[in-house]
Amino acid sequence: MSLRARSVLAFATFAIGGLAAVAGSSQPPLAGDEVAAVDLAGWLRERREKLCVLDARSADAFDAGHLPGARRLADSAASDDGDTVVVYADRDVDAGVADALRRQSAARVLRLHGGLRAWNDEVLFPVLRGDASAGQRQRFEARAALSRYFGGTPRQLDPGEAAGRTRSRRGC
């Protein structure tokens, strides 16, 4: 086999392997220092000991709404309170924030993947498409129970119904 053929074969192997790793997932894979919203919800529901959740947003944003049990990062030396610290913002937290927390604490510091937006989409307001498979329906039922635990409203769509809200566009 020629060197060029080996190179093409090696590239194809890595490309297929990479695609297989994320097949069936609409989300990019988590980084090593991230936790998924559904996993964090499970930890909170089971009242995992020594878990500290820190909100990296402004005081006004925190007062408008935050995750259960969360404390403001700016007001707290709370990273010393837990073995695991999860920090979040509206979307993904800058890795520098997590790195600064790691330097200050011996705790394992994780970022909430997708931030508060992921919490809302995946925990509080999950949506099941009307054409979902039996496996997807089963996973949704577990998420729906978690959603209701936190006061959310899971939604099952009818076949053909769009997941987003319908919006009319007026003007130019």
Automatic annotation (TrEMBL):
Signal peptide coordinates: 1-20
Keyword Signal: yes
Recorded superkingdom: Bacteria
Organism: Tahibacter soli
Keywords of this entry: Signal
Pfam families found in the cross-reference section: Rhodanese (PF00581)
Rhodanese domain location: 47-128
Protein name from the UniProt record: Rhodanese-like domain-containing protein
SMART domains, per the entry: RHOD (SM00450)
GO molecular function: thiosulfate-cyanide sulfurtransferase activity
SUPFAM superfamilies in alphabetical order: Rhodanese/Cell cycle control phosphatase (SSF52821)
Chain segments carrying region Disordered: 151-172
